[in-house]
Write a structure and sequence with these properties.
It is built from no helices and 20 strands. By secondary structure, the chain is mainly β. It is globular.
Amino acid sequence: MGGGVYLRDNTSSVLHDNFFAGNSCFDDGGGLYLTGEHAALSRNVVQDNQASQDGAGMYVADSEASLVNSLVVDNESIYAGSGNGIHVADASVRSWHGTLARNSGGEGSGIHVSSGSIALTNTILVSHTVGVYAESGATATLSATLWGTATWGNEQDASGPGSILTGTTGHNLWALPGFATPGAGDFHLSSGSAAIDAGTTSQVVTDLDGEPRFNVPDLGVDEYWSPGALKRLYLPWITRNG
């Protein structure tokens, strides 16, 4: 388990600014397998991983986990796995500004909650057989979500006997995500994306690239800035003689 990273029991872990890609395992958690007291992840890319069973991208078990600016795309369960992007088992997961796309294989779900809960804010969740699936007794709560449409739509946005709460209609969008060049693995937003200025207020002040977010943030991992709009100020190096 844990083709890329396996975080053990009874630990608290922090993972920032990592790229987990091209990993595989013969059971759960192709990119990451997280278990332990608490896991805090921010600005991580989980892409092109494989698992024979559940959680091709990420498997979270018996843990409290926070995910900020997590890009989880193009992961694949080889056999009959579930939660091809993220699988939650007896865990409590909180996600802000996640982008999940084109995770496939098995049941084809982007997120599968077998037990426990997941809460997601300002999310792009597109191009899956099932966007989010919750088993009996499990809970998924989504606030401000772009579900995709046309070639980027999910066959089903939500399914399962568990509790799935998607918030008000105004915070659910069925539109094209407008990724820059997804065929080349670039999931930044382009100027026509429906995700721009569609989020709800959060305490996340930067995006996957460390660029600032607006008061009304964009959905997903990227905050769109038009070319030339983002200025960087480099202060001079000042020294004092003596």
